[in-house]
Amino acid sequence: MTRLAVVLTEAFADWEVGQLTASARTEFGFDVVTATPGGAEVRSMGGLRVTPDTAAEALRAEAFDGLVLCGGMIWETEKAPDLKPVIDEFMARGKLVAGICAATLALAKAGALNNAAHTSNALRFIADLPGYCGHAHYKDASAAVRDGMLVTAPGSAPTTFAAEIYRALNFRNEDLDQYLLMFGAEHQPKAA
Hints:
Blueprint: E1 3-7, H1 14-27, E2 31-36, E3 42-43, E4 49-50, E5 54-55, E6 66-69, H2 84-92, E7 96-100, H3 103-109, H4 123-126, E8 145-147, E9 150-153, H5 158-168, H6 174-184
Parallel strand pairs: 1-2, 1-6, 2-5, 6-7, 7-9
Antiparallel strand pairs: 3-4, 8-9
Helix pairs in contact: 1-5
């Protein structure tokens, strides 16, 4: 069974991992484990309370197929958790590492974006962060960007974020294709 560790923080952005977690668990049978800083209960931007399965700092790469960081307001503050050791371990073991919206700040600070194609909300959003020197690899994209086992996305791209995570994990079937078509339909050009 595929296992994903999904890190949520206080005031996490509900929409950014909702499609991924719901489809992974319900449609495709993944084990989705939620983790928060210190294992504390968190509340989303929309007010949903989440009691996590574990502490984010306790995540170990050998127990998971991937690490997913959900965006939220905390990543832009001094209260942002330092997950560099966790990110480094997942990357060193060749596991999926993914971040959307402001969670790309954590990846940038950890140096995870320095040598791989990536995106974020904008280059200026991550450009001056300590630990980040991946400017030449930045892609100004409205959809998720995948480079091997690294997936990044702006906050406006939860559908392609989910899609690229599935692709990185080599998870493809007719159900996934239909799911992605359904949730991405609003972004398809209209027939003339």
